[in-house]
Amino acid sequence: MHALKGGFPFYGELETDPVNAATGFRSGGGALVEETVLRQFQANVGDGISLGKLTNNIVGRLKKVPGQTVALSGFAPAVYISMDDVAATDLLQRGSLARYQVFFKFGPDTDVPKLLESILPQLERFRLGHDTVEERSGTSGGRWTTSIIS
Fold this sequence. Notes:
By secondary structure, the protein is α/β, with parallel strands linked by helices. It has helices at residues 21-24, 35-40, 70-75, 86-89, 112-125, 133-137, and strands at residues 2-4, 15-17, 30-34, 48-51, 54-64, 79-82, 103-105, 147-149.
């Protein structure tokens, strides 16, 4: 399960069927589900889906997420819901494993490597990782490994 809040993705768009499902699920009460999950459970858009204690309607078929490879979806197919719906699932409890990512988008005049250099001690102190768009695309050659998008 993935939960989104805010403007993610900053670059590109979630591709869904129907097209308006990419924005509709963000207000809560709906889920985007990848094709492999729909096929596995013989489900369709409009059917119900249970995530822990929450039952939502499938509002769309998730076709593509910017920055994710097709191979990943075959290995770990995703269900996307609004971050506002996460508490209702009751899945985040003591002992639960959750991974949080925060994405930042800076203006074109921001010196992102310099900014990262200045906050590196705090990131290391809290054991936070980081990378940039250039690093993800393989164009920077830098050592940057939180997701900071410039």
